[in-house]
C-alpha cells in the first residue's frame, strides 16, 4: 500500500514510456516512493538511508551499478532504495539480476533523456499532496499540471505538453506511437529539430503566442516528421502584450484528427494552467516557508524541532551553510536556484536549497569532511561559469553546530558575500575562517566612509598641500606605511633616494601635525588612508 505516497505505477505513468520503461518490479508496481536522489559515482558510498527513495544513477557504468546493487542487497531493507533508474538497465543482465535480488524495482531511462529534466519531473510528482493524486484516471486538473495535461489530452484527442517560458517541459500527457520528433525530444529535455524551430520562428508562431491569447494552428511537416499541433500561451495579468508570459501548452495531433472544439478547450486549459502556475508563484509551499524561516529570512524565529521533523533533518551534529551571490551584473542567480539544487542534491541527498533575494543558500545537514564541502563548492562555481556563463561568488560557514545555528550562519555568510575583498587569495570561494580579517577590515572601512564624524580632517590639509605644491606626499606616506616603516623598502618602491623619502615624511609630519614614530598616529593614518582608497 502507498499510504498516501506516490506509487511506482503513478510515477511511470507520469514519466511516460518515452522517458522511462519498467524492467523489473520485484515488489510490484504499488511500491510507495517519497524522495528522489540524483547520485554520481563518488556519491554512492555516502547514500545509506534509501527507504522510499528513487535513485537516479548518473554516469555510473553497468559494472559499478551491479557491484553497488550487490552491496545494497546486504543492507537492512530500510537502507535500500525502492526504485533504481539508470540508462544501462536494458544492457546488463548483471544489473537486472542484482536489482531483483535486492528487491529493488529497475527502470530503464532513455539514453537521450536529460537527467536534470527527469529529476525535476519526479520532484514535482512527489511534491504533490495526496489530495492531488488519485488512483483513478481522474486526476486533479484544477490544482495539478499533470492532471490538467491528462484531462486535456482526453478531451481533445491529442497529446499534450505544458512548458515554461524557456521551453522546459513542466508536465505532459501519455504518448502513443504517433508521437513525433518534436514531442519526443521535448519530453527528453532536448531541443527540437533545428529546421522546424527555424520555421516556427519565421512564421512568427512564438511571437503570436507571446503577444496574444489566440490558439495558433501549426500545420504538419511530414518531411521533418512533425505532425500538426495547436499551441496557446499561458498568460497572467492584463490582456494583450502587457500580460506576463508563464508558458505554453502544445497539443499534438495523433493518428486521428483533433476534436472540433479542441481550440476552445485548449484556450480554457490555458486559463486553468495560469491559475495553477500563479498559485505556485504567489503562495510558496509549506516546505518553502519552513526552509526560509530556517535560514532566518523572516526574522520571526523558528521552531527548530518542528522544522526538522517536517523536513526530515537531524537537529544536531555538524552542518554547513553555503551562500552563492552573482558577481556584478552576471545574471539572475535566483532563476538558476533549481540547477544549484540539483547539484546540491547530488552531493548530499538531504541538502536544502532556497533562493532569498538575489542569492541562493544551501544547507548541508551532514557532511563527511570540510575539505569535501569546499571542493564541491569550488567545482560548482567553476561549472556554473563554464556551462551556464554564471559568474558567482560563494561563502562557506562550516562547521555549524546544528539547525538552531543556521540563521546565524547565513548572516555570517552574507557578511562575506557583502565584502568585495572577502577572499584574500583571489578565489571566488571563501570560508568564514579564511575571510574573517578581510571582512572585518572591509566593514570597518565602510563604517568610516559612511560616517563623516569619523573622518580625520587633517587629510584634507595633506591633499591641499599636494595640490598647491604639485607634490604627492599622500603616495609617499602610503608606501612608507605599506613597507611597515622600512624607509629603504618604500624608497625602492617609489624609485627615489631614501633621503628624498625621509624629507617627504618629515613634510607629512609637519602638515598633519603627527609623529610617524608614534604607533597610534601611524595606525590612525593607515586606517584613514585605507578608508579613502
Tell me about this structure.
This protein is an alpha+beta fold and 533 residues long. It has 20 helices and 17 strands. The strands form four sheets. The protein has a five-stranded mixed beta sheet, with helices on both faces. The protein has a five-stranded antiparallel beta sheet with strand order 9-8-12-11-10, sandwiched between helices. The longest helix has 21 residues, at 262-282.
Topology:
Elements: E1 6-7, H1 8-15, E2 20-24, E3 32-33, E4 35-39, E5 53-57, H2 62-73, E6 83-86, H3 93-102, E7 105-109, H4 115-127, H5 145-156, E8 158-163, E9 169-172, H6 181-187, H7 194-202, H8 205-211, E10 216-218, E11 229-236, E12 244-253, H9 262-282, H10 286-294, H11 304-311, E13 316-326, H12 337-347, E14 352-356, E15 359-364, H13 370-388, E16 392-402, H14 406-418, E17 429-431, H15 432-450, H16 458-469, H17 473-482, H18 487-494, H19 498-512, H20 519-532
Parallel strand pairs: 4-5, 5-6, 6-7, 16-17
Antiparallel strand pairs: 1-3, 2-7, 8-9, 8-12, 10-11, 11-12, 13-15, 13-16, 14-15
Helix pairs in contact: 2-3, 5-9, 10-11, 14-15, 15-20, 17-18, 17-19, 18-19
